[in-house]
């Protein structure tokens, strides 16, 4: 028994001396708008729900990071990333919520994974809008490729990965370092190509990221899928998993 207690004390001491890596939830959203019946319900979150969720993060001491500030995750209080795939125009609803909640203590920050060749389509953010979002300091514009293909089945990686990165960098004047794989599809070949141009890549695998020191773990980042009917309790729970 005494040996067991000693071992337990040593183990506890070891844990505090080498603090375990902090879990980093990466929230995944698509449209921030009311679902009106067309398309997939769970690719929407209503502006009211989104505001409640961001208010929860604010009230509970979360620090909203972007990929540029990834290295701060171990230093800040409760790190979390808020990401939006596909670059829809209705992300102005997210912008409004961020602007409303922003104060000296709470600095909202989100990452928009936009599709380079879809810019200026009717329901997507235009060049000017992406620039305005970026200049607000509340959004980082990152890449969701050029044409949203299944990256496992293409050969023109340079166009999809490097081309899209350069297009967004030309629009915002800021570095593009993170990629969102269309449909979350990824294999070893896709990771190898992505590594040439990016420091991070996100999937749609469900979960909260905890660093394990595995090769390529930053190129297979899991995310927390925020669904349309998720309650605030479910949202809070998903941040812990
Ligand atoms: Zn997508």
From TrEMBL:
Residues 78-241 form the NodB homology domain. It comes from the Bacteria. CDD domains: CE4_NodB_like_5s_6s. GO terms for molecular function: hydrolase activity, acting on carbon-nitrogen (but not peptide) bonds. It is found in: Secreted. Gene3D superfamilies: Glycoside hydrolase/deacetylase. GO terms for biological process: carbohydrate metabolic process. It holds the Pfam family Polysacc_deac_1. The keyword Glycoprotein does not apply. The keyword Amino-acid biosynthesis does not apply. Keywords: Signal. This is Polysaccharide deacetylase family protein. The lineage of its organism: Bacteria, Bacillati, Bacillota, Bacilli, Bacillales.
